[in-house]
Write a structure and sequence with these properties.
alpha+beta; three-stranded antiparallel β-sheet; about 250 residues; 11 strands; six-stranded mixed β-sheet
Length: about 250
C-alpha cells in the first residue's frame, strides 16, 4: 500500500488533469470495461461502497503522471462523491487502492504485460487482468493475483476472485448489437451474469409468457363456461321433450 505524507501539499483531483489525452486504439477498450461496469451497476444496485472507472486516470504519485487502465474496480469507496462525479481517481484522497485493474490490448502493446503490470504491482492492486482477443498461442485473458509483491497467473476461465465475490471470464455473446467475444462477470457456480440488454429481453419474455398464460387461462375458462351452458341447454331440451311425452322429468330422478 502506498503511503503519503499528510504534511505535504498534495494536489486535489480538481487540480490534476482528468485525462492523459491518449486516444484509445479501438472501441473495444471502452466497450469491454463498459459492459463489466453496466453488469455491476445492476448486480450491485443497492450497494454504494464500490466504484468502477473506465478510461480514468489513477494518480498514485504526486510527482508522476496518472496511469490510465481501460477499467478498474475499487471496493470500500463511495460510489458517488458529488453530482459532478469523479474527474480522476486520486489515491491520497480515496485512501483505497483499486482491487482490480483491467487492460484491453488492441492493435499494439502499450506495456500491458511489462511496465503497466509492474506499476500496478507497486500500487498494490490485488488483481490484474489483461485481455487480448488477437492472441492465438497464449491465453487471451490472463488474470494475475498479487502475492508478496509479484503477480502470479491464475488458471481457468472464468477466474474466481474471492475478495470481489465474482469471477471474470470471456465467451461469445452480443452487446449493443455486436456479436463477438466479450468479458463477463460470473457467480461462484460459474453461471454468467446477465447484461442489461439480456435482463430487458428476459423481462420482456417473462411478461409475454405470463400474458400468454393469462390469455390461455381465459380461453379455457370461456370454453368451460360454454360447455356448461351447452349441457344446461341440452338438459332443458330433454326435459321439455319428456314433458311433451307426458313424462315428468322429476319422476326419473
Amino acid at each position: 500500500m502506498l503511503k503519503y505524507n499528510p504534511l505535504h501539499c498534495l494536489p486535489s483531483s480538481e487540480e490534476l488533469p482528468d485525462s492523459d489525452d491518449t486516444p484509445v486504439d479501438n472501441e473495444l477498450q471502452d466497450l469491454i470495461p463498459g459492459l463489466l461496469k453496466a453488469i455491476l451497476a445492476l448486480l450491485w444496485a443497492d450497494r454504494w461502497d464500490w466504484f468502477f472507472g473506465v478510461d480514468m486516470g489513477i494518480y498514485y504519485d504526486p510527482d508522476k503522471p496518472a496511469i490510465v487502465p481501460d477499467g478498474f474496480l475499487s471496493i470500500g469507496v463511495e460510489r458517488l462523491i458529488d453530482e459532478e462525479l469523479r474527474l480522476s481517481y486520486v489515491l491520497w484522497e480515496e485512501n483505497i487502492v483499486p482491487i482490480l485493474a483491467l487492460e484491453v490490448v488492441s492493435k499494439k502493446y502499450r506495456g500491458e504485460y511489462t511496465k503497466k503490470k509492474q506499476k500496478y504491482a507497486q500500487m498494490g492492486v490485488l488483481f490484474y487482468a489483461v485481455y487480448s482477443s488477437r492472441r492465438r498461442r497464449k491465453p487471451r485473458l490472463e488474470v494475475y493475483r498479487l502475492v508478496n509483491g509479484s503477480y502470479e497467473l491464475l488458471p481457468g476461465n472464468p477466474v474466481w476472485l474471492p475478495e470481489i465475490g465474482l469471477a471474470i471470464g470471456f465467451e461469445r455473446g452480443t452487446y449493443q448489437g455486436i456479436p463477438r467475444e466479450w468479458l463477463y462477470w460470473y457467480d461462484e457456480t460459474g453461471k454468467r451474469l446477465l447484461t442489461p440488454e439480456e435482463r430487458i429481453t428476459e423481462a420482456e419474455e417473462r411478461a409475454n409468457f405470463e400474458e400468454q398464460r393469462r390469455f390461455e387461462a381465459e380461453r379455457l375458462s370461456q370454453e368451460e363456461q360454454q360447455r356448461r351452458q351447452e349441457a344446461e341447454r341440452r338438459a332443458q331440451l330433454l326435459a321439455q321433450r319428456l314433458k311433451d311425452l307426458g313424462i315428468d322429468p322429476e319422476t326419473l330422478v
